[in-house]
């Protein structure tokens, strides 16, 4: 059994890791866009990768969701909501752009 | 028994307050279900925005309106506020003094208000340049998506004020702790939505 002090230290460390990740993963895409070091396609890739990584980091370090067993199936709910979002967003974009192409 | 007994998303009270931890399982999960439904709302606003990219009706586009420096400041304020909220949660879990929690919540509140101040300033500047929702499909979708997030942050700020008052009035009672746990989820969630907004709306347009 971990002592409360150990538990506190670990949780504090989680928030600090989260903050560091957030700063890094925000600063990189902003810098790429602000200074225009790369062609636009590379910028898009940097923005997408940094954005997804940052969302994963925030779920992990701020919302404390990980792959360990959870009584309440929180991760499954996230994955299901993610699926719903993907279907609706993907479907909307697919259909609207299909319509647009046919007009 | 090496890992913490986790019952719900966010910081778990665990052994620091077993009674509240027991109650939290159901209450926090219920709030998490609400947050996921809120996520669907934002997803659809993002979908609408995605279909309206470039539909500026020959009017001004994102290049004319978006100010990268202002968005960077807003992002910094909101990201740091998520971190300071984490420290409020830690203080609530491990420190019996309510004033520590109140101080961290106060810092978070100031950062949230600062974020809203910059955001409102951005919107006013846009409106001054003719960027109003009725100008084009692009701007309609923009003003449906981004201010909805701002409105959530505003609601979160009111909620923080309420929790500061409750903490001062009742101390760290069980109900107060459970409410701060839920507020924490809400606040971190808004941070995640903001990441999506800066990526999809601002950075993509200015790249």
From TrEMBL, chain A:
Keyword terms of this UniProt record: Cell membrane, Electron transport, Membrane, Oxidoreductase, Transmembrane, Transmembrane helix, Transport
Residue stretches in coiled coil: none
Domain of life: Bacteria
Transmembrane recorded as keyword: yes
Protein location: Cell membrane
UniProt entry tagged with the keyword Secreted: no
Membrane topology: Multi-pass membrane protein
Transmembrane segments annotated in the record for this chain: 15-38, 44-63, 75-97
Protein family membership: Belongs to the cytochrome c oxidase bacterial subunit 4 family.
Subunit description: Heterooctamer of two A chains, two B chains, two C chains and two D chains.
Task of the protein: Cytochrome bo(3) ubiquinol terminal oxidase is the component of the aerobic respiratory chain of E.coli that predominates when cells are grown at high aeration. Has proton pump activity across the membrane in addition to electron transfer, pumping 2 protons/electron.
PANTHER family: CYTOCHROME BO(3) UBIQUINOL OXIDASE SUBUNIT 4
Name used for this protein in its record: Cytochrome bo(3) ubiquinol oxidase subunit 4
Organism: Jiella sonneratiae
Protein's gene: cyoD
TrEMBL record, chain B:
SUPFAM superfamilies in alphabetical order: Cytochrome c oxidase subunit III-like
Source domain of life: Bacteria
Cited InterPro entries: Cyt_c/ubiquinol_Oxase_su3 (IPR024791), Cyt_c_oxidase-like_su3 (IPR000298), Cyt_c_oxidase_su3-like_sf (IPR035973), Cyt_c_oxidase_su3_a-hlx (IPR013833), Ubiquinol_oxase_su3_dom (IPR033946)
Main location: membrane
Residue ranges constituting the Heme-copper oxidase subunit III family profile domain according to the UniProt record: 27-206
Keywords assigned: Cell membrane, Membrane, Oxidoreductase, Transmembrane, Transmembrane helix
Transmembrane stretches, start-end: 27-50, 70-89, 101-118, 151-173, 185-205
Pfam annotation, one family: COX3
Bilayer topology term: Multi-pass membrane protein
Subcellular location: Cell membrane
Similarity field: Belongs to the cytochrome c oxidase subunit 3 family.
PANTHER family: CYTOCHROME BO(3) UBIQUINOL OXIDASE SUBUNIT 3 (PTHR11403:SF2), CYTOCHROME C OXIDASE SUBUNIT III (PTHR11403)
The protein's name in its UniProt record: Cytochrome (Ubi)quinol oxidase subunit III
UniProt organism field: Jiella sonneratiae
Organism classification: Bacteria, Pseudomonadati, Pseudomonadota, Alphaproteobacteria, Hyphomicrobiales
């Amino acid at each position: 059994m971990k002592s409360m002090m150990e538990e506190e230290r670990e949780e504090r460390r989680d928030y600090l890791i989260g903050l560091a990740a957030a700063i890094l993963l925000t600063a990189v895409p902003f810098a790429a866009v602000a200074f225009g070091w790369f062609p636009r396609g590379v910028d898009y890739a940097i923005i997408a990768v940094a954005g997804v990584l940052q969302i994963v980091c925030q779920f992990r370090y701020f919302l404390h969701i990980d792959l360990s067993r959870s009584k309440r199936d929180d991760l499954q709910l996230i994955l299901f909501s993610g699926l719903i979002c993907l279907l609706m967003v993907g479907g909307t974009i697919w259909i609207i752009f299909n319509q647009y192409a046919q007009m | 028994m090496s890992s913490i007994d986790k019952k719900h998303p966010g910081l778990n009270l665990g052994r620091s307050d077993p009674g509240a931890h027991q109650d939290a399982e159901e209450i926090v999960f219920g709030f998490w279900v609400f947050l996921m439904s809120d996520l669907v709302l934002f997803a659809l606003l993002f979908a609408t925005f995605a279909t309206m990219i470039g539909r500026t009706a020959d009017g001004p586009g994102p290049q004319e309106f978006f100010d990268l420096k202002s968005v960077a400041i807003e992002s910094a304020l909101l990201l740091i506020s998520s971190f300071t909220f984490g420290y409020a949660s830690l203080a609530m879990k491990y420190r019996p003094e309510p004033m520590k929690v109140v101080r961290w919540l106060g810092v978070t509140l100031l950062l949230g208000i600062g974020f809203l101040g910059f955001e409102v300033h951005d919107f006013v500047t846009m409106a001054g340049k003719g960027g109003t929702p009725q100008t084009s499909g692009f701007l309609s979708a923009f003003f449906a998506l981004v201010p909805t997030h701002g409105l959530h942050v505003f609601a979160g700020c009111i909620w923080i004020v309420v929790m500061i008052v409750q903490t001062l009035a009742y101390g760290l009672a069980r109900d107060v702790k459970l409410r701060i746990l839920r507020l924490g989820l809400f606040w971190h969630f808004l941070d995640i939505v903001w990441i999506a907004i800066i990526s999809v709306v601002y950075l993509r347009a200015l790249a």
